[in-house]
UniProtKB/TrEMBL annotation:
GO terms for biological process: membrane protein proteolysis. InterPro entries: PA_dom_sf, PA_domain, Peptidase_A22B_SPP, Preselin/SPP. The lineage of its organism: Eukaryota, Viridiplantae, Streptophyta, Embryophyta, Tracheophyta. One of its GO terms (molecular function) is aspartic endopeptidase activity, intramembrane cleaving. Its main location: membrane. It comes from the Eukaryota. Keywords: Endosome, Glycoprotein, Hydrolase, Membrane, Signal, Transmembrane, Transmembrane helix. It holds the Pfam family Peptidase_A22B. It comes from Asparagus officinalis. It is a multi-pass membrane protein. The keyword Nucleotide-binding does not apply. GO terms for cellular component: cytoplasmic side of endoplasmic reticulum membrane; endosome membrane; Golgi-associated vesicle membrane; lumenal side of endoplasmic reticulum membrane; lysosomal membrane. This is PA domain-containing protein. Residues 1-22 form the signal peptide. Belongs to the peptidase A22B family.
């Protein structure tokens, strides 16, 4: 029995490699500033006029020079959204003599300032530098969500979709169903089995797409990505909800209806799909709201779980090709691209300076709850999907070879992925918030770990060539 047909979610992989990092905000202090009882923060009172400017295409240093030349005592730059970013200057601008404080403020604060000035009110500005926590609890939540998404996707087929993993996982069958229905579902189920050539082609295509974003980023282009994300998120949420409800109530998975063009589909699928579409539309319409991150994370998690069900690695040979290419890809576009393009392409795309204030949605984000400067801790979809493919393979390998939790690979790769995330955030802290290629730490902690464990256990050859004898027709090679 089929659910409603969907777009090929494997194409969404190309749009899920964006990584984002939230930078710190520069802070200015004044030793002679007045003190407020009960507050140890340092203040600076500006007695002269402060200029107010919108963030645009010109450099922050140009804005500062113009404001200072005009006699302003300071400059407030209104950001395009609620996030705050570190304002930096290029190497050619380091010799500029800017003596006034320049501060970025969120869009909401800037709107209040403009409304007050438009109504003839007098606005006084008091700059202060609150103490920031060394680490915010949101980073822990981001890590837990990333690890939880991979674990959930790995266990989904067996415990939620009720698929049995036989030896060499040649056959995927539904439990507790008639044989005819099972074979029909298997014939309709498409699994994208990645091969080494497809892995290399994918990374090359992802690099070309990243350059496209770098050179042609604009608000309409970001909105195109948002629409694609909503389509993929809707289908991902639809697949997950149908599977969950069918798991809870088997009666819901038996009732069908015949629709024009679609044929025989589940009634449950027809009911759930409009809800999922409405959820995505509401998120897109309110994505600038303070609570929008919840909807984005829900859609993103459902999409990644679905993609990890459709795309599978057959063995460690293919995994090595894919993750090694992704490893080089991440390092090149973060650390080496500034030597060619004069700035980090990955960070420039993630920061989105020229996108009209719209943010690329291909990432999970959680607000920094206890950080007075606000902002978000984020992780890109690619940092979850690439290692997630390997972790999901390790679970299928353990189950097919009847391995326990301790002598298998799944548990240790999950721990390795979590440790890789810890190293990523540690590097972010040590590098003062500068963007880091997460796969630089995640690939050695997952691919490197399974290779070492396989070699020590004498199973590396089997892992390397696993699945070559597979004869099932339920896979499509990339």
């Amino acid at each position: 029995m089929a659910t409603l047909p969907s777009p090929l979610l494997c194409l969404a992989l190309l749009f899920l490699i964006a990584a984002a990092r939230a930078d710190d905000v520069s802070r200015d202090e004044d030793e002679d500033a007045p003190k407020i009882p009960g507050c140890s923060n340092k203040f600076q009172l500006l007695s002269n006029s402060v200029a107010l400017a919108k963030r645009g295409d010109c450099a922050f240093t140009n804005k500062a020079v113009v404001a200072q030349f005009g006699g302003a005592a300071g400059l407030l730059v209104i950001n395009d959204n609620e996030d705050l970013y570190k304002m930096v200057c290029t190497e050619n601008d380091t010799s500029l003599n800017v003596t006034i404080p320049v501060v970025m403020i969120p869009k909401s604060a800037g709107d209040k300032f403009k409304d007050s000035l438009a109504n003839g009110a007098r606005v006084e500005v008091l700059l202060y530098s609150p103490n920031r926590p060394v680490a915010d609890i949101s980073a822990i939540f981001v890590g837990l969500i990333a690890v939880g998404t991979i674990v959930c996707a790995s266990l989904w087929s067996e415990f939620i979709a009720c698929e049995q993993v036989d030896e060499r996982y040649n056959q995927l069958t539904r439990k507790d169903q008639p044989a005819g229905m099972s074979s029909r579902e298997d014939s309709e189920k498409e699994i994208l089995e990645i091969n080494a050539r497809g892995a290399i082609i994918f990374v090359i295509a992802a690099s070309a797409f990243l350059l496209l974003l770098f050179y042609f980023m604009s608000s309409w282009f970001v909105w195109l990505l948002i629409v694609l994300f909503c389509i993929g998120g809707t289908e991902g949420m639809h697949v997950c909800l149908v599977a969950l409800i069918s798991r809870i109530s088997r009666d819901c998975s038996q009732k069908t209806i015949t629709l024009p063009l679609f044929g025989e589909v589940l009634v449950l699928s027809v009911v759930v799909l409009p809800f999922c579409a409405a959820f995505a539309i509401v998120w897109a319409a309110s994505q600038h709201a303070s609570y929008a991150w919840i909807g984005q994370d829900v859609l993103g998690i459902c999409l990644m779980i679905t993609v990890l069900q459709m795309a599978r690695l057959p063995n460690i040979k293919v995994a090595s090709a894919l993750l090694s290419c992704a490893f080089v890809y991440d390092i090149f576009w973060v650390f080496i691209s500034p030597l060619i393009f004069h700035e980090s392409v990955m960070i420039a795309v993630a920061r989105g300076d020229n996108n009209g204030g719209e943010a690329i949605p291909m990432l999970l984000r959680i607000p920094r709850f206890f950080d007075p400067w606000g902002g978000y801790d984020m992780i890109g979809f690619g940092d979850i999907l690439f290692p997630g493919l390997l972790v999901a393979f390790s679970y299928r390998y353990d189950r097919a070879n009847k391995k326990g939790i301790w002598n298998g690979f799944f548990l240790w790769l999950t721990v390795g992925y979590a440790f890789g995330l810890f190293l990523t955030y540690l590097a972010l802290y040590l590098m003062d918030g500068h963007g880091q290629p997460a796969l630089l730490y995640l690939v050695p902690c997952t691919l490197g770990l399974i290779i070492i464990l396989g070699w020590l256990r004498g199973e590396l050859n089997d892992l390397w060539n696993y699945g070559k004898s597979r004869t099932g027709n339920d896979a499509v090679e990339a």
